[in-house]
Amino acid sequence: MYDQPLFLRTLSGFARALPAAYDVENVLSDLAESVTAVLNLAGAGVSLSEGGRLQFFSAVNEASGTLERVQQQYQLGPCRDAYETGLPVCVRDVSERADEWPDYVSAAAQAGIAGVAGVPMRLADEVIGALNLYASGPRDWSDEDIAVAGVLADMATGLLVNASKRQQQQQLNDQLQQALESRIVIEQAKGITAGHSGVSVDGAFQAIRGHARQHSTSLRSVAEAIVKVGLRV
Fold first, then answer.
1. C-alpha triplet 123, 11, 121: angle, nearest 5°
2. What is the DSSP letter of 165?
3. Is 53 helix (H, G, I), strand (E, B) or coil?
4. Do residues 76 and 53 touch, judged by C-beta distance below 8 A?
5. Exposure of 134 by Cβ count < 10 A (0-12 exposed, 13-18 middle, 19+ buried)?
6. Contact in structure between 115 and 94 (CB atoms under 8 Å)
7. Which ranges constitute the DSSP H helices of the chain?
8. pLDDT digits (tens, 9 = 90+) for 91-124
């Protein structure tokens, strides 16, 4: 039975984070810690896809981290299967999969983990990683367990996407600001060059651009040299 009040508080916390500034690493850490507490697990971890390979990003404790690293190294285990199939992978007792995942099963035994499950993290039709659940003893994973883990994984995925969009918007804003600053200094340089050389503003711009091409540098660099250090072109 999952901790329903804690589950609701966790969802509320994720929802409150959406409009605010937040760190992606903290989101993944919160996901692993939250699902561990809500489902009363021995641990949890998150691995995300990079170029088709799963990379370990976050774990609640050393035992969870060990299993995440093994999955990253060998690209096998419930995490990999959940990522490839897009479906939850539930294993009551991982020792039963020794033939399929020998290195993973050995690491689980040393870490004191028996029950394992992988829950895919989805972005529309794309699986971007998996949330991994660890129990110290054999566990019959219920539909409720997996549903709760899936909702938390979806919330965290939404935050990841939101962070990516925020970053893209910030990059666009930065580029626009740089373009505006460049335009201002170029206009200043055109005026200075036109006045000094007795040519039109368009002629001044052609001179600035020609100097930039000749010296394999940017228009802004030439313009700043004209405005700040008195370069003449």
1. 20
2. H
3. strand
4. no
5. buried
6. yes
7. 4-17, 24-38, 62-74, 78-85, 102-111, 143-197, 201-214, 219-229
8. 999 999 999 999 999 999 999 999 999 999 887 7
